[in-house]
Write a structure and sequence with these properties.
Elements (H helix, E strand, L loop, with lengths): L2 H14 L1 H39 L4 E5 L31 H8 L4 E6 L7 E3 L5 E2 L2 E4 L8 E4 L9 E5 H6 L5 H4 L3 E8 L8 E13 L11 E4 L1 H12 L10 E6 L5 H10 L3 E4 H44 L1 H9 L4 H42 L11 H18 L1 H8 L3 H6 L2
Parallel strand pairs: 5-10, 7-9
Antiparallel strand pairs: 1-11, 1-12, 2-11, 3-4, 3-8, 6-9, 7-10, 8-9
Helix pairs in contact: 1-10, 2-8, 2-10, 2-11, 8-11, 8-12, 10-11, 10-12
């Protein structure tokens, strides 16, 4: 008997018991729904972390520290490079100018940029009001979402990128009107005497306005300067103090992305702690993989439960159709074809359940994707991404599981003696 004919007959048999077929298919569909959603969440989560890393780091850049960050426990021993403040993950562990010089000499290193982050007193604008300001160094290779203005290459040393929050606060009417205007930053020279503190005003032209982005690590209150401008501020504030020339972290630019791992190994051998963009991505993806594994476990549990439902359904079908099986065998149907008939019925159940479950998961994802994005305030980013290949694998896998579940009932049907089967009332 041809496979096509057996498949059609299997579909007709299931159609005659529609309610039972539907309920059994829905049982396996629950597993398909959960597995499809977990795979979509894994793909979406990893895609989101890829975008985060590319929007906040350069794949050719390494973050280097004196030692691996760890929480200090108990008293910390003083050294000449200590800042005198026992706080933070890098407490007592600082890169100095000698370290910077050594790192610059490593083969493949293009530039070394210490993390200056100058601590200024305040920033002011046309309104005359003064606000605290956190400053950071702008990186041309990092994607930045802008509300106004534009950047091409690095910033000039007299330029600054404000955030939307500072536009109104500093007295500008809107984002666009702030571009090209001047803001003032006042910094204190820490080495000056307390009785007569020295301060200086630095003027910067607003180059652009950074917009809030769901991909940004950087705090929305951080203002951006060029590396040289940050160094100028840092030098003015800290020169002559014990903190001068000590840095918690420095950015090391490699000649190419392929060279980062080699440079990382060299830095590790020299006793430094180095981390690439791939390392950051790996840590985040590990967390995503754990969550995805938990969801897949629930899906697998639902599928295992549905296996018993398929076996039970098929056994009941065999018992109800004993005379029909006997008649088919008496008319010349081979044992192999009888077994194939019941396996194909199980395959249809698996296919229907997998298709319905996966289809509902896709519909569910299309509905909740914008809701999730809005709730997490991440813009147009989708956290559930359905790949056709994954859906095909889920449906095909569930068909195979269903066929495997129908093997025992199929063997029972194939072994029925046609004479005994026809005598059954």
């Amino acid at each position: 008997m041809r496979l096509r004919d057996v498949s059609i007959r299997a579909a007709r048999s299931l159609k005659q018991a529609k309610a039972r077929t539907l309920l059994t298919s829905l049982a396996i569909g629950v597993g398909a729904f959960t597995i499809t959603l977990s795979l979509a969440a894994g793909v979406g989560g990893r895609a989101y972390t890829d975008q985060i890393v590319s929007a906040n780091t350069d794949i050719k850049e390494l973050s280097v520290a004196k030692a691996k960050p760890q929480e200090q426990q108990g008293p910390q021993k003083y050294s000449d490079t200590s800042s005198g403040v026992a706080t933070g993950l890098f407490a007592g562990q600082y890169l100095n100018l000698d370290d910077i010089s050594k790192i610059k000499q490593i083969d493949g290193v293009v530039s070394v940029s210490p993390n200056y982050n100058p601590q200024v007193r305040y920033i002011s604008g046309p309104s005359g009001d003064r606000y605290l300001a956190a400053l950071s160094t702008f990186s041309p290779s990092v994607t930045l979402k802008l509300a106004a203005g534009s950047t091409s290459g690095d910033l000039a040393d007299n330029e600054i990128i404000l955030t939307e929050a500072y536009v109104t606060a500093l007295g500008f009417s809107d984002d666009q009107s702030a571009v090209g205007q001047t803001v003032n930053i006042v910094a204190d020279k820490l080495s000056s005497p307390l009785s007569n503190p020295e301060s200086r005003t630095f003027n910067y032209v607003v180059k652009a306005i950074s917009s809030k982005s769901g991909l940004a690590f950087r705090a929305q209150s951080t203002l951006l300067l060029s590396n040289n401008a940050s160094k100028t501020l840092y030098d003015y504030i800290n020169q002559g103090t014990r903190n001068y020339g000590n840095f918690t972290v420095t950015a090391v630019q490699a000649v190419s992305a392929d060279k980062t791992n080699t440079i990382k190994q060299t830095l590790t051998d020299m006793g430094y702690f180095a981390q690439t963009a791939a390392d950051i991505l790996g840590v985040i993806n590990t967390f995503i993989n754990v969550l995805q594994g938990i969801l897949l476990g629930f899906g697998a549990l639902a599928v295992i439960t549905s296996v018993f439902g398929i076996i039970n359904t098929q056994y009941i079908s065999v018992l109800e159709r004993v005379q029909q099986i006997g008649l088919m065998k008496a008319l010349g149907m081979r044992r192999r074809d009888v077994g194939r008939l019941f396996k194909l019925e199980a395959a249809w159940i698996g296919f229907i359940g997998g298709a319905v479950g996966s289809g509902l998961a896709v519909i569910f994802g299309l509905v909740v994707n914008p809701i999730i994005s809005k709730a997490l305030d991440i813009g147009d980013v989708r956290l559930l991404i359905f790949e056709p290949l994954n859906i095909f694998i889920v449906v095909a896998g569930l068909v195979l599981v269903a066929v495997a579940s129908g093997i025992l009932p199929a063997r029972k049907a194939a072994r029925l003696n046609p004479i005994d089967a026809l005598r059954t009332e």
